[in-house]
């Protein structure tokens, strides 16, 4: 754990110094040789049952037939498990538990394990939903050192919610729908192995939390299901997503305001709208996201690839972002920065203020684009995108050529860059300096490795 924290702090310290050059930023954004996620010790309730207190929802009256309302049984089981140290709240396999909108509150006694082996299913009728919980189904609040794990499924039964969406039927009013699972105002939480599917809206939300680890989860919703973001991170820090397979009708991963020190590794995305930072700045609001790393990802058939999206009129910044070792297959907009994002039935007005976007690095990005503009940097004339770095980019199109679009974007490309990014404004001096810096970093790494081996 300490190694990961040190990595995030040292590698991605906020780059606040006015006048930092491309070479300085490149060095700050380097990945150390051999840098990997720390393997976390995931406790198993089965291997340690001797010193754990098992709290089975069936013992509190849960029926598990998918028809009977098991909400109160889950609430009562939670109260007991939460109050006793080293408890395991067990949702047994082979059953289907119908649970209404519920907020499971902490703080709880130390080392609570939520072991989900069966299926938890939401009511499927929107009109019967509790009007006090219209934006949340299963919410876990104020937890510390809790572990969610198992081979179970959390099913939001979202089909009727999707049909009622204004995005599916424009004659319907635009209303919010519940997020399936929310980890809220919590710290040191781990989630492993679960499947989230068919959420009413967002599948899994991490909100106002710190130190959250998500591993080996699967998120699934139909490609045409509206607003079903896979994993949504808001106002949270020190979050790790690893070995996740996500296919939805919206962003596979979305990172929004107040989030920093986010690391994603070994991510599969598709279908969906890609891996997104934003949207930010809506209704002239302030949006801040920094220190984000995506390391090793595969995106297939998505409408966007690596996307940063902000509304006109906003303020704040997105900075210190690194994308590396990403493969695209038939992606419509593989690399896109859009400071003119407008997800509104009405035309958005032109405004001069914007969320500032800077210090964005793309390295080893390959694959195929469905659209002609494989790279698009649509930036504000008054708040340009700066310090964009492209290194070893190879994006092709099976039925035609590809190109890069730039508007008010400052950056450089070096190594192999296809399509050419000559539209990024920079100087030859920047490229020469950054190539020298690359050589210095490579030499330093080699010397360090030799010294270590001796």
UniProtKB/TrEMBL annotation:
Enzyme active site: 273
GO BP, one annotated term: cell wall organization
Location relative to the cell: Secreted, Cell wall
Pfam families: Glyco_hydro_28 (PF00295)
Keywords: Cell wall, Cell wall biogenesis/degradation, Glycosidase, Hydrolase, Repeat, Secreted, Signal
Keyword Metal-binding among UniProt keywords: no
Chief subcellular location: secreted
Reactions catalysed: (1,4-alpha-D-galacturonosyl)n+m + H2O = (1,4-alpha-D-galacturonosyl)n + (1,4-alpha-D-galacturonosyl)m
Domain of life: Eukaryota
Any one GO molecular-function label of the UniProt entry: polygalacturonase activity
EC number: 3.2.1.15
Keyword Amino-acid biosynthesis assigned: no
Coiled coil: none
Leader sequence residues: 1-19
Family: Belongs to the glycosyl hydrolase 28 family.
Protein name: endo-polygalacturonase
């Amino acid at each position: 754990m300490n190694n990961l924290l040190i990595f995030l702090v040292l590698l991605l310290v906020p780059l606040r110094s006015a006048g930092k050059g491309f070479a300085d930023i490149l060095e700050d954004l380097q990945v150390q040789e051999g840098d990997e996620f720390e393997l976390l010790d995931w406790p198993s309730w089965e291997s340690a049952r001797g010193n754990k207190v098992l709290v089975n929802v069936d013992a509190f009256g849960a029926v598990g037939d998918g028809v009977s309302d098991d909400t109160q049984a889950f609430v009562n089981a939670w109260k007991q498990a939460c109050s006793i140290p080293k408890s395991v709240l067990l949702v047994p396999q082979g059953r289907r538990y119908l649970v209404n909108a519920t907020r499971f509150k902490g703080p709880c006694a130390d080392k609570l394990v939520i072991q989900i082996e069966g299926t938890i299913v939401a009511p499927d009728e929107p009109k019967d939903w509790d009007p006090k919980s219209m934006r949340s189904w299963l919410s876990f609040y104020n937890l510390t050192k809790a572990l969610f794990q198992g081979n179970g499924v959390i099913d939001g039964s979202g089909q009727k919610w999707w049909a009622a969406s204004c995005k599916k039927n424009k004659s319907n009013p635009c209303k919010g729908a519940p997020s399936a699972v929310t980890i809220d105002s919590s710290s040191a939480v781990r989630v492993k192995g679960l499947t989230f599917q068919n959420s009413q809206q967002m599948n899994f939300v991490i909100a106002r939390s710190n130190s959250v680890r998500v591993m080996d989860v699967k998120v699934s919703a139909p490609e045409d299901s509206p607003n079903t973001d896979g994993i949504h991170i808001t106002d949270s820090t020190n979050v790790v997503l690893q070995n996740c397979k996500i296919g939805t009708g919206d962003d596979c991963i979305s990172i929004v305001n107040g989030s920093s020190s986010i690391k994603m590794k070994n991510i599969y995305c598709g279908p969906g709208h890609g891996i997104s930072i934003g949207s930010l700045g809506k209704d002239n609001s302030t949006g801040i996201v920094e220190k984000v790393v995506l390391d090793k990802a595969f995106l297939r058939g998505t409408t966007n690839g690596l996307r940063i999206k902000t509304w006109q009129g906003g303020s704040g910044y997105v900075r210190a972002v690194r994308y590396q070792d990403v493969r695209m297959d038939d992606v419509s907009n593989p690399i896109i920065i859009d400071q003119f994002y407008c997800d509104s039935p009405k035309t958005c007005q032109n405004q001069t203020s914007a969320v500032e976007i800077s210090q964005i690095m793309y390295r080893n990005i390959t694959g195929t684009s469905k659209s002609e503009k494989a790279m698009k940097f649509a930036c504000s004339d008054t708040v340009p995108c700066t310090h964009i770095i492209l290194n070893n980019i190879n994006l092709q199109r099976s039925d035609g050529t590809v190109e890069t679009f730039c508007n008010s974007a400052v950056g450089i490309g070096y190594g192999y860059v296809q399509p050419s990014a000559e539209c990024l404004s920079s100087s030859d001096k920047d490229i020469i300096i950054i190539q020298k810096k690359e050589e210095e970093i490579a030499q330093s790494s080699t010397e360090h490795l030799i010294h270590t081996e001796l």
